[in-house]
Amino acid sequence: MDHKDRQETCFTNFSTQNQQKWEFPDPLTELLQASKAQDWDPAAMLNNLSFLEQKIHQLQGLVHLIIGRRDRVSGQVQPYELVAQQQQLVTADLTSIIVQLISTAGSLLPYVKHTQGAPSLSLGQFQPQNGGVSGGGGGGSGASELQNSVDVSTNEEHDLKDEEDGEELGENLFPGTYEILQLEKEEILAPHTHFCTICGKGFKRDANLRMHMRGHGDEYKTPAALAKPNKESSSEPALIKRYSCPFAGCKRNKDHRNFRPLKTILCVKNHYRRTHCDKSYTCSRCNTKKFSVMADLKTHEKHCGKDKWLCSCGTTFSRKDKLFGHIALFQGHTPAIPLDDTKGSTGTCDPGNDSEATNKLGSMNMFNFSSSEDVKGSMEDPSGCFSPLNFETCNFGGFHEFPRPPFDDSESSLAFLLSGSCGYTNKSGEQ
Amino acid sequence: MKKQKQNNPFNLVAEEIIFIILDLLNRNSLAIKSFSLVCKSFYAVESKHRCSLKPLRQDRLPALLSRYPNITHLDLTLCSRVSDASLSLVSHSCASSLRSIDFSRTPLFSTYGLLGLALNCKNIVEIDLSNATELKDSALAAVAEAKNLEKLSLARCKSITDMGVGCVAVGCRKLRFICLKWCFGVGDLGIGLLAVKCKHLCFLDLSYLPITNKCLSSISKLQHLEELVLEGCFGIEDDSLAVLKHGCNSLKSLDVSTCQNISHNGLPSLINGALGLRQLTLAHGSPVTSSLADCLRKHSMLQSVKLDGCFVTDDGLKTIGNWCASLRELSLSKCSGVTDEGLSSIVTKHGDLRKLDITCCRKITDASIASITNSCKSLTSLRVESCTLVTREAFVLIGQRCHLLEELDLTDNEVDDKGLKYISRCSELSSLKLGICLNITDEGLIHIGKGCSKLVELDLYRSEEITDSAILAIAQGCPGLEMINIAYCKYITDCSLLSLSKCPQLKTLESRGCSLITSLGLKAVAVGCKELTKLDIKKCHNIDDAGMLPLARFSQNLRQINLSHSSVTDIGLLSLASISCLQNMTILHLKGLTPAGLAAVLLACGGLKKVKLQATFRWLLPLRLVQYLESRGCMFQWKDKVLQEKLDPKCWKLKLEDLMP
């Protein structure tokens, strides 16, 4: 038990180192800046080298420890898990060292380029073990030497390589200023990325996992356990990470000729779903637009149906100024007024006449303006008798007994007027 | 028929000649009416000749349209409502002839009616849709079908937006005149599109629109724009105007009143190119300083400048005096800061002034009047209302020197009989306003009656010393009198009305508060003045139903009547129903009015558009009746005013002066 505890603490130590390994010490970035101005600072380089030395020492200690443990429990068969863990730790540290070394050398690059004659160092020599990069072959010997010297560990190196493989030198970024990671398809599409080590429950966010962990005991409630990890490393700026899409042939895939890396894991996830997955979310409003990312659907739904700026040619615009720009540009195009606007009458509209108005809409749309039908129809209207001229017959106390609600009267009074006038025209015709 | 033709000597006269005669008769509607009543052939000729129609009620439309087949201009402003069916009738009967239609102030038609009109009347050139506050964009889409439209007025169409204006801009490419005043929903985009699509625009009214400089740049590219009204466009500012490289070169008239954000920095960029500018209105804008006035120094064509309500400095006025243009019209009404010195420096340089308005310039004295009358001898219009420091002697100068005056406003001044005696030398005078001139008496007005035979309009509001003999002199001397205001002249009796009944042209009579006049006098006016259209007999307590009966019988042109505080009852009101033109009625505080009687009156007067009533009747009238009347096109104004104490006129005047420092 005692051993186990020690081992664990030891491992945690290394794991924190593991996290730190991607970060550059401050002076290096400064150096990078400085090197652009083509004066190289040897002091900074020295600083870097001593940092590397320290790291190698740490790795040495770790390997010693493993050997010590192996001697002790030599009789027994080692559990497979433990061996794998050990190997992983060692390889991780080794790759870290390699990366450091390369980037340190890379800082020299402009200087090297400047002094072209210097034979000892060339860009090729500092290329990583990457088959995809053509430049790797040029300075082959140096690179392979380097590889051989660090290739002390296991056969499983290539597993790690898959993740590390993304190391590619962007044209505008110096080697080592960023690293490329590539997640697997399953990993990208996994609903959860953080899992509880105790009950196995998955979470999308690290913070949610930490909240969850509180339920598993008081030790997870300490401020240290609840604090956001990586905090302590904030003193040193992180090495810039870039991501590659696992889909072969994609421009975002590291093997593409014009590879353009993705900035964050979220970008990877959204990119992969948008471009390489089925669009499974359909907008419930328009039933035409489909999305593979939920957030895209939600954004669309916010604006769906609001493309209300319509041109007579059928094009819709979400912005009025765009529509007017379109109309100003094209001859014969005209703003299209939405139909619900045409239904309402322009005058003070009578709520009771809605059905009539819509009936008319049909006939008006066919440009049938002959009023004869309308007039006939309304002449039969019984309320036509309620007219201004036969007021004498009305009982002034009994206005509540109008045959029809007065709102309809705009039509009925019209009926009277027309019928009256028809009589008049007939008479004049006889004359 | 043939026999008749042979007997009628007029059959030998060519129709064209009769048309020319009718053209000459056109000024007098009664003459035309009598002409058409002579015989059938005259009736037919008149029917053929008439080309403009202004019906009072839409129910007459079918008969009128079948009688007059050659109508080109149809004015529906007097109809209380116009339905879609009427519109479709119009669009069918005047399909090819109709060129102009006026709907302003007529609600209650819909998009479909308009669409039919636009599609059927191919030759329609002018549509006035002002005050259709409910008009929607779809209606404008219908208007856009009138491809030959040249003139469109949409003032106060508050519900229309850029979309509707865009439709019109695309549809009516020949548009030359458009008024969009108070169309608050129209902005830069609509106006910009209008300027892009309608290249022939020459009149553009954009008053009170929320527009900015964005559309100004496209407006400035209009080659034919002559008149631009930007009144109250608060979004237009100096800074943005500076961007305009060239204003509209063709501009002849510019109105930027109430644009407080335009000063001497921005104005030049609007008008610099427009060397033909004739008219400029800067009312209620930024202060008129010498730098502002300097912007206009080079505009030699400038004829009319309106600076109403601006703060004016002496330097500014002096700079105006140095302009190379010779002004014809200047308005400084309600300007603060106008002094004798400043005004004199203008009028001495601009001796050709025809119209001058110095209303409420309270600092000016006799010296100003002296220099005005001295240099501007050809003035035709002078407004000197409420110039309180001007003494009575100054008005003598006006009469002595400005003989060409046609319009003179001396309201609320110290003018006296001597002044009037000299003013009576202005034989061309047609409009004279002497309201609240407490120094004038019959003597002065008798001079006016003798001298100013062309008087058309006379205002004697609260000129209290006036009696019957003055009115007699006016009525005898000015046979062409059309409007007279004798309100609150307390000595006026029936004799005055009897003399006024000899003025056959009288259209407007205001005798508010003349408590001595009775129904007898009113009867004389009704019989004598057939053209009477406006009558105000508020607070004439002695007028009762006996006065209404002759009115109903003889004044068939009466449109507006105010009967408040008189002794008229239900019966008198009901008799007014026989006046088919009656549209406007104010009947407050009538003691003899009952709810049932009122209901009968309202139903009987079919052409009513506006009725002012006491608020108590709102609850006494059946709700359905009110709704019915409203659907017929009648608007109600419910007044809830308590009877005011009788005010001493002098005390009333003092109050007014307190309000206006």
Write the layout of secondary structure elements.
The complex is a heterodimer of chains A (431) and B (661).
Chain A: H1 2-20, H2 26-36, H3 42-72, H4 80-106, H5 109-114, H6 140-150, H7 157-164, E1 178-182, H8 185-189, E2 194-195, E3 202-203, H9 206-213, H10 223-226, E4 240-244, H11 265-276, E5 281-282, E6 290-291, H12 294-303, E7 309-311, E8 316-317, H13 320-329, E9 335-336, H14 339-343, H15 354-365, H16 372-379, H17 409-430
Parallel strand pairs in A: 1-4
Antiparallel strand pairs in A: 2-3, 5-6, 7-8, 7-9
Chain B: H1 2-7, H2 15-25, H3 29-36, H4 40-49, E1 52-53, H5 61-67, E2 73-75, H6 84-93, E3 100-102, H7 111-120, E4 126-128, H8 137-143, E5 151-153, H9 162-171, E6 177-179, H10 188-197, E7 203-205, H11 213-219, E8 227-229, H12 238-241, E9 253-255, H13 267-271, E10 279-281, H14 290-294, E11 304-306, H15 314-321, E12 329-331, H16 340-349, E13 355-357, H17 366-375, E14 381-383, H18 394-401, E15 407-409, H19 417-423, E16 431-433, H20 442-451, E17 457-459, H21 468-477, E18 483-485, H22 494-500, E19 508-510, H23 519-528, E20 534-536, H24 545-554, E21 560-562, H25 570-575, E22 584-587, H26 595-604, E23 610-614, H27 616-620, H28 623-631, E24 635-639, H29 649-659
Parallel strand pairs in B: 1-2, 2-3, 3-4, 4-5, 5-6, 6-7, 7-8, 8-9, 9-10, 10-11, 11-12, 12-13, 13-14, 14-15, 15-16, 16-17, 17-18, 18-19, 19-20, 20-21, 21-22, 22-23, 23-24
What do you see in this structure?
The complex is a heterodimer of chains A (431) and B (661). Chain A is mostly helical and 431 residues long. Chain A is built from 17 helices and 9 strands. In chain A, strands 8-7-9 form a 3-stranded antiparallel sheet. Chain A has a two-stranded parallel sheet with strand order 1-4. In chain A, a hairpin with a 4-residue loop joins strand 7 (309-311) and strand 8 (316-317). The longest helix of chain A is centred in the N-terminal third of the chain and has 31 residues, at 42-72. Chain A is elongated, with a radius of gyration of 40 Å. The N and C termini of chain A lie far apart (128 Å). Chain B is an alpha/beta fold. In chain B, 36% of the residues lie in helices and 11% in strands. Chain B is built from 29 helices and 24 strands. In chain B, helix 7 packs parallel to helix 8, helix 8 runs parallel beside helix 9 and helix 9 (162-171) packs parallel to helix 10. Chain B is globular and about 65 Å long. The chains are: A mainly alpha (431), B alpha/beta (661). The interface between A and B is large, with 56 and 63 residues.
